[in-house]
Design goal:
Length: 102
């Protein structure tokens, strides 16, 4: 049995669905960030799969590297925000943090 484009797209759809569930259903900020990382990884799988099976040579790989760089920057900024929220409120429940206006 050969692994084809359909297999990659199914895995990507599953990761994307789990990531969206993590973003929408969770109240903890770290879990929301983990869901966002799953969504970005699903996009990376799509970029690489279409680069391999769709005829794109290097463009899919470049897009995937750009998404990885974007995810690293997002994680650094988001974790700094989470630490600031924890210092002010002693929890990171995103539903209860709405008084953070300066």
């Amino acid at each position: 049995m050969e692994i084809g484009l359909t297999h990659y797209l199914i895995i990507s759809a599953i990761l994307f669905s789990l990531g969206m569930f993590g973003i929408v259903a969770r109240k903890h900020a770290i879990m929301v960030l983990m869901g966002l990382e799953l969504v970005l990884n699903a996009a990376n799988i799509n970029f690489i799969a279409f680069a391999r099976f769709g005829g794109m040579n290097i463009e899919g790989h470049v897009a995937a590297i750009f998404v990885i760089i974007l995810a690293a920057a997002e994680a650094a900024v988001a974790l700094a925000i989470v630490l600031n929220i924890y210092q002010n409120f002693r929890h990171v429940n995103v539903d209860e943090v709405d008084q953070m206006r300066d």
